[in-house]
Amino acid sequence: MANLVISAAGAAVGYLVGGPTGASIGWTLGSMASARGQDTVMAAPQVGDLRVQTSQYGTPITVAVGKQRISGNVIWAAEKNVINNTSTQRTGKGGGGSVTTTMTTYTVDMAIAICKGPIVGISRVWADGKLIIDSTQTAKPLIGNLYLGSNTQLPDPVMEGHLGAGNVPAYRGLAYIVLNDFDLGVTGRIPMFSFEVIREGGL
Q1: What distance lies between CA 115 and its chain's CA centroid?
Q2: Contact 74, 190 (CB under 8 A)
Q3: CA-CA distance, 193 to 74, in Å (whole number)?
């Protein structure tokens, strides 16, 4: 508010001296005067709370037939982990200065429902359309804990580590996967997952 008052006063004085042109010059000089002595603080944008865009209540559980690509549904996610990676690079020659840069990335533990079990397995997984798991390539092996949806499967230990033993359902009859420390990059956003499911007879 004080900045506007000083700028307006400069414009008024300038108008009396030089008309519209003087007013423009006066406004500029007033703005420069009000800016003197002020520190400029620029804060880097921060990622807010974890937004689970693929989680929906009341979503029907898919029944896979043969080999089928199915969209996942996030049924649980922990708070994201913040990882600060700091690097220092020298500038100039000899005794020059240095620039220190900090890049923040995020990881998260989460459980993703796939379909009604039991299934034989999953052969491929996509995140935002990018292939991240391919059972035919050793470079993209299966990650996380995969539950085939049997009637005897037990609660996941990663979820129990967050929620406590006895507080995690076994989701028997539901095929799902738990990803541990999944890399969310600098955005902190959970991608859209899809899975190529193999049910009995779909090999």
Answers
A1: 25
A2: yes
A3: 9
Q: From start to end of 19-149, where are the E strands?
A: 67-71, 73-77, 81-90, 98-116, 121-127, 130-134, 145-147
Phi, psi of 18 (to 5 degrees): -130, 20
| pTM, two decimal places | 0.66
Where do we find the tokens 């996941």? 156
User: Which whole-number Å values give the CA distances from 80 to 50, 52, 75, 77, 157, in the listed order?
Assistant: 7, 11, 15, 8, 18
Q: What is the C-alpha to C-alpha distance for residues 173 and 193, in angstroms, rounded to an integer? A: 20
Per-residue tokens: 157: 């230990």
Contact 118, 137 (CB under 8 A): no
> Can you tell me which residue has the tokens 């999944």?
182
User: What is the C-alpha to C-alpha distance for residues 4 and 8, in angstroms, rounded to an integer?
Assistant: 6
Q: Give rounded-to-5 percent helix, strand, coil for the chain.
A: 20, 35, 45
Per-position pLDDT tens, the chain of length 203: 544 444 555 545 455 555 555 555 555 555 555 444 443 333 344 444 444 444 566 677 888 888 889 999 999 999 999 988 887 776 666 556 677 788 889 999 999 999 999 999 888 999 999 998 887 776 566 778 999 999 999 999 999 999 999 999 999 999 999 999 999 988 889 999 999 998 875 44
Contacts of 173 (CB under 8 A, 6+ apart): 116, 117, 118, 149, 150, 151
